[in-house]
Amino acid sequence: MADENAAGDEDEDAAAGSAGGGKKKLFLFGGIGLVVLLAVGGGAYFFLMGSDSPAPTPGEADPLMEVQKPVVFYDLPEMTVNLATDGRSTYLKVRIALEVENRGMIDQIQPFLPRILDAFQIYLRELRPADLEGSAGLFRLKEELLRRINLSVYPAKVEGVLFKEILVQ
User: Which family does this protein fall into (predicted)?
Assistant: First the structure.
């Protein structure tokens, strides 16, 4: 019987040892997971919230803040053109403003106004209504008009073409 009790005690010790080993593994993996989680969280905080420059003092202006340059807008006359279609007449009515650096640039551009309007009219007449669909079509139109106007007024430079009104009918 003593042998049976000794064998039973050994089985209980083995079961307790394996259960204790399982708890040790659980604590070990949980601890490693917690360390990894804290490291990832700290790294994310550092990269997202951290800053290389010191915080500005309340009385000090921010040295990185850029001052927005003043711009001047010049309105072109309203244009109505017939678009290229296969049958039915389709018209494009457009009002455009040009963005330039200063008033002196407008004085340089005004003598070229007939050339600008001619370049716009020729290009706009080649368009189909499908070319003007969606924001991508209008973006391409804006970029092409900007390219054409800068070719027409060189050495002066237009910074942007802005649509005030655009109507396809």
Answer: Belongs to the FliL family.
